[in-house]
Amino acid sequence: DGLFERFPVQEIYAYHTASALRPGELALNYGAMQAAADAFTLTITGKGGHGSRPENCNDPIVAAAYIITALQTLVSRNVSPLDSAVVSCGSIHSGDPLAQSVIPNSCQIVGTTRTFKPETRDLIEKRLKEVAESTAAAFGCTAVLDYDRKYPPLINSEEQAKAIADVGAELVGEENVKRNYPRATGGEDFAFMAGAVPGAYIRVGQGGAPAHNGYFDFNDEIIPLAASLLVKTLEKRFKDLAG
Question: Domains in the chain, ordered, with CATH?
Fold first, then answer.
């Protein structure tokens, strides 16, 4: 939206609570922290009719079932085992549950993909379209893909990640800073900012139930550490950049 054109910054920092870490623990890595998060909708169109005469139909539900199964090979047979990706179908909808004898004209599949590399993101989108279209065609149906690129991958810049990790070590001790923490497949809107200028994203331990959970309760006791972490990182970077 032009934020950094209106208010130019040299680098940027953020943190996120982490229930998997104890209060007083910090975690990050010097590369990919979060995945690109995209959404897709597949619309499979066939020829509906009566369930008692399926030979007169091109059943989009059967085609969709085979497409969902085929999509499971996008990662296992297209992405290098040294890389990683996720393809998940979260919804399938077709027909009317009160019309049990009707084969509908169309079926919709909705899902999400997660990737870390631009080339893997391109590959998944390309192969998703190809596999869906080809599989649908085998059943006399068509498949149309609507692929929505929502969030890019969140990549920590090494210099900035090291800076905030070093400050964290001063605050909680090196033994409580995990500098090679596993990347996560969740999406994160801070990725847009860290993709525009160098930046770092760190996890601040809070314990308790996981986020996005009905039992989650933010731990107020971590606020002083989190605030100090940002303030002292900015102080350090101002001095570093001033030479």
Answer: 3-34+153-242 (3.40.630.10), 36-151 (3.30.70.360)
